[in-house]
Structure to design on (432 residues):
């Protein structure tokens, strides 16, 4: 359901020659999503011959009388504006979507019920808020010249407002210190936090010498044990040595573990958008389209693997400046074959993958009508198009445009997928 107000038709704007169009829009809608499957609401029975020597019948699935559709309510406000004989146009939409009774699949239940899980369960709430904006402009236009441009952007932020019962609060980092794993990041699904957030340790460099491995309190003083000896930092159960990775001891207990995990970033971009322009002079025209993502954090897993120095795999030239002896000033830990925790999931490998890419650039020449008529044709044009010609980014990997994660418990990773290639196309268009 929606309403709109065409403000440009009001009497108090009749004299506004600079205004061509003005519309304000308000809308509200509600939708639902049904659980998928055949006869999922119905309980079922199954036959078995495992009861002594006699066949038996037993319930194999629970009847879900209380199962409901997942439902969403969305509110939208927007406007459309046009000025100066439609040479400047704006479109804007702001929306809020509230979803409840989220459909959770294969939810575990107590074994005392005689079952291990139910097919679906309604639990949890979430919300999405964001905006979409587009602007079109004609900068100049006459008999020979036309210069136009446009840009669009979108932002969406989501969060869990009521945690579903089958969502783990903290996954990815094992509960026990001894099970901490290199290269693993944590995911915390918590109320009020955006979906896609991931967590890990803060990387502080390399222990340059033995003195640097001493645990310190909040004031930076060395902590001692009951015998008065300095406490050596531990990464999990592994005792740190000079040349090992330093992770920030958040709670100053001398042990790097799950209590030192902090927020590192979000796999969902803060802003996505595009822009383009067209310049025409007589029969020749140039068109360009740009695309970008901004504010997205990704894990450069390729760099992680090539700097781990853990196994027998090839490594990058960056490891040539690794720590080898006391006095080495470097941010890359020493090499440890199948040992140590020198590449735990930390901000060492988290990078800002913001980028702007020239997706297409086309140059087109259209022959004059006089030339076309000479050969009995209506239109003839030739063109050349380049794809992915330039990318502006500070990202260190091959390609910042990595695939967005499909699940809330996945992080956007660059795992050396083949980057987009530069391509060129040439063509001839003829209309009879």
């Amino acid at each position: 359901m929606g309403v709109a107000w065409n403000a440009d038709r009001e009497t108090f704007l009749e004299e506004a020659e600079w205004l061509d169009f003005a519309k304000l829009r308000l809308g509200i809608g509600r939708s639902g999503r049904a659980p998928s499957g055949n006869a999922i609401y119905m309980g079922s029975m199954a036959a078995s011959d495992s009861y002594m020597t006699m066949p038996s019948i037993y319930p194999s699935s629970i009847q879900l009388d209380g199962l409901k559709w997942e439902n969403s309510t969305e509110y939208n406000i927007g406007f459309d504006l046009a000025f100066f004989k439609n040479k400047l146009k704006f479109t804007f939409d702001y929306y809020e979507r509230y979803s409840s009774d989220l459909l959770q699949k294969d939810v575990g239940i107590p074994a005392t019920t005689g079952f291990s899980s139910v097919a679906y369960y309604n639990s949890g709430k979430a919300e999405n808020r964001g905006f979409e904006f587009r602007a079109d402009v004609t900068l100049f236009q006459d008999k020979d010249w036309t210069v136009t441009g446009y840009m669009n952007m979108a932002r969406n932020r989501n969060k869990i407002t009521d945690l579903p019962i089958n969502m783990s609060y903290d996954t990815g980092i094992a509960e026990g210190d001894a099970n901490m794993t290199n290269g693993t990041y944590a995911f915390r699904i918590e109320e009020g936090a955006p979906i896609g957030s991931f967590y890990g340790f803060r990387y502080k460099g390399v222990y340059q010498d033995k003195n640097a491995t001493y645990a310190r309190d909040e004031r930076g003083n060395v902590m001692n044990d009951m015998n008065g000896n300095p406490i050596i930092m531990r990464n999990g159960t592994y005792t740190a040595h000079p040349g090992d990775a330093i992770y920030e001891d958040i709670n100053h207990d001398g042990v790097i573990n799950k209590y030192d995990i902090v927020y590192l970033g979000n796999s969902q971009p803060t802003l996505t958008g595009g822009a383009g322009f067209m310049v025409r002079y007589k029969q020749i025209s140039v068109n360009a389209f740009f695309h970008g993502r901004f504010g997205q954090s990704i894990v450069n897993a390729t760099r992680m693997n090539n700097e781990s120095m853990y196994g027998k795999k090839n490594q990058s030239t960056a490891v040539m400046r690794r720590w080898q002896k006391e006095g080495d000033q470097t941010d890359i830990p020493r090499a440890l074959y199948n040992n140590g925790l020198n590449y735990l999931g930390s901000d060492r490998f988290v990078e800002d993958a913001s980028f702007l890419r020239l997706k297409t650039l086309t140059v087109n020449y259209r022959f004059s009508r006089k030339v076309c008529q000479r050969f009995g044709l209506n239109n003839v044009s030739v063109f050349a198009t380049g794809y992915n010609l330039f990318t502006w980014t500070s990202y260190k990997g091959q390609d910042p445009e990595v695939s967005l994660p499909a699940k809330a418990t996945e992080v956007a990773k660059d795992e050396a997928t083949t980057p987009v290639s530069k391509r060129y196309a040439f063509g001839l268009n003829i209309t009879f």
The CA atoms of residues 226 and 257 lie 22 Å apart. The first helix runs from residue 301 to 307. The radius of gyration is 31 Å.
